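hey so i finaly got around to running the thing on Penicillin-binding protein from Lentibacillus cibarius. pasting the sequence first so u can double check i didnt mess up the copy paste, my clipboard has been acting weird all day
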Amino acid sequence: MKFKQFLQTCIHKIKSFFKKLREHPYSKKAISVWKTGKIQQSSRIGYDVIWNIVLFFLIIGVIGAFFAGGVGAGYFASLVKDEPIRDYENMEQNIYNYEETSSLYFANDKYIGDVRSDLYRQEVTLKNVSENLKNAVIATEDEYFNEHNGIVPKAIVRALVQQATNAPMQSGGSTLTQQLVKNQILTNEVSFERKAKEILIAMRLERFFDKDEILEAYLNVVPYGRDASGGNIAGIQTAAQGIFGIDASEVNLAQAAYLAGLPQSPSYYTPFKNSGGLKGEEGIQPGLNRMKSVLERMHEAGYITKAQFENALSYDITTDFTDESPSPVEKYPYLTVMAQQRAKGIIQEHLAKEDGYTMEDLQNDDKLMEDYAIRADRALRQNGYEIHTTIDKKTHDTFQKIVQNYEHFGPDWTGYVTDKETGRKKKITQQIQTGGILIENKTGRIIGFVGGRNSNKDSQFNFAFQSKRSNGSTMKPILTYAPAFEQGVIQPGTPIADVRKTYSTPSGGYTPHNYGGGYHGIVPARKALYNSYNIPAIKIYDKIRGQDPVSEFLEPMGITSIRDNEYTHLSLGIGGTTDGVSVEENVNAFATFANQGKFVDAHLIEQITDKEGNVVFEYNPDPVDVFSPQTAYLTVDVMRDVIDRGTATYLQSQLKYNHVDWAGKTGTSQNYKDAWFVGVNPNVSMGVWIGYRKGKNIRCPSCSLSYSQRNEKLWAQLVNAASDINPELMAPEQKFERPGGIVTRSYCAISGKLPSDLCKEAGLIKTDIFNAKYVPTEKDDSLIRGSYVIVDGKAVLAAENTPKEFVEGDGITFNPEFLKRKGYDQLNNPSTLFPSTNRKAWEKIGLPQSDVSNKVVENDGKKPSAPGAVKASGSKLTWNQSSSSDVVGYRIYQAKKPNSSFRLIGNTTGTKFTFTDKKAVYRVKAVDYFGLESAASKEVLVGDFSKSENEKSGHSNNAAEGNKQNENANKNSESEKQ
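ok and heres what it spat out for the 3d tokens, dont ask me to read them lol
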């Protein structure tokens, strides 16, 4: 059918030619002369001959034309025999499947720029293209666009002849429809077969699509050379923006003509160099000449008037060329690279999911993973996604300025390092680098970050996301203290001894030390954390590490860089990681405390839509329960003290908004290679790290600030600036909400148990908050009254019921049983248990004597045997010791005369007693370890009692009378003790 139309078009053109020929004045004159007959008469013979010859060639020509047409048609059919018949859906998919650059956006839809690509293209609808542009393109590329059915036969014939004869000047002969087919369905191959298919498909395309649809697709496909930054551009919208800095709907006539002329030779006519920036005057001139040609064609085709033509010619378009501007990668290097990486991962998972694969499938198949990574990268650069990040533009821009102008990073380091490739030493100079990140707690939105100082080759390495560093003591809250709170192993007030301790390890002994050296005695867990003591943290971690707190707590908080079985290493409890953690991971984990123990994964990409506006990805928070609200609050409350009276008190002088309820933790890695501070308030979490990329000591004796203060000052400047921009988010009035189940209790500072009378007497009662589930229930037993008693000839520690008059010592002393239970009995010097705080009260506590036995005295429940052989000699009373083995001493009683009441006059741990009254009655009782008294000994009369007195009193000195008196004395034993 199409071929028949082609023949009819040819016949129509021939008839039109002869009609014009007949109407020409010379033709009319020739015809009038011919009608007189003179010519025929004089040349009859010649006419017949010539006519026969012409007729012969006409017949041969017609036959040849039909033969050639048949051969051509056959040849054409052979060229397209393998071309499938394409339906509407197939052709629609092909012509609209052009590469379109994906775009990046800040939060609130603020444009960042395009994804870095080999070709930049933005789609535009035809209604958003100026009429001047449409007319310029049609006049230049396809003057019969609105009339033809996909092809222009004379142009095709011309092109075929030029191709066959290898003419030096060859015209394309292609309509806009054909060019669209070539670009979107076929290839750029130069051959009769490709051309034949192009013709066939172009005619079919015209059947399915109207002219506006074809023109719109063409305008979005065609290449336009370079933009001001040197990027390859395609599509009329991208060209208008890249060359003039305006939309395709805004171009004037001269600009439209200039743009329409570029596709013929984009690299030649473009005004910009491959590297960016304007070409020289000579390089710009071809494009200007081409613009004039386009204007001439528009004028000839009637699209513009002569006045418009002349005005456009005189227009100085060179003043409209846009200035070279930094690309998004140049302006936001850390953001664009990281956003593209995160988006690529999301698209990779999306594409795999469409094909029925999960990310687990990809992780278990390296080839599959690589395949979808390549596909995701290609889709990101070609599919025109809109990638919406969570980044607040103003906050992010301000962060970059602060870092660029910050004066307290510290000095550059110059020295030799080992080259991993060659193994040789090489000299380098490196700056102290930094990484920081600001996260909204409840949503996980990354509001802003610092990727580094944007210097030299480090600019493409993101220290907030990519760098893995030892997080030092910032590990303590998330891996040691909070898990121990959660499991009830400790509470904020739990006393822990900061004393020297060596642990047995497979590689030998491990003796942790505090930074700055020294020990601090028994301190509450709260103080150990806010002053960042290492030894207490190691002791706590040692109690919980067997339960693998990494798997139970760290991994659910997004920290996945800890190696298998590394949880068994004691040093991990204070941040001694093998591979380290990123700033993002560390800060994100801290945000869990602000979220009442729920972890919300931080994210940089909020949403991705395709070019049709369909949502490909949208982040939805999925909180994970890690800690109870009570544990989260306890940890926050302790970390408040880090700023109030601990290692980060310097911040108090740096924060602009002093009412904010901040809690946080400092951190220093081994050999002072890293400095950290992570802070949280009810709304946001912010963390900053500084250190050399190749880890070196960052201390600086000549600096006005310590390494920790230099990092904290930077943190404060970033927080203050963000608070100025968004005070409602950054500087909330509300405090951390105290959940139910948190109670306040008093406890003994020595043991952490309920206070005893002795602990109160010693002045060592403290008060703190507890998870109600883990308040102390046992009474303190860390102290005892006195030091020891002599039992069976040996010094034995006194018990609670041991009569105090027989106890030797200075009053209150440590209970040796308590010391042994806690392992403190192994200390060379128990006085190291005394902390510096309230030390005077601690120093009043006696230390057990070295010769005191830890022997436990068994309580048989029986009274001890009475002492025997009591006798008086001079002013001394002597007796034999009791036969009971648990006796600790003896009490001596006196009566004024026989048969009168006895009263206690003294006690002794020996078997002698000196009395002063030379006329009295005496007896002795043995007292055991548990306070039980024996029966009274035989009475001893001292002095001269007359017979009459004896008779009056009824006194008898015989044994029976003495036994009766003993019974009476026993009845009064309680009063005698007083």
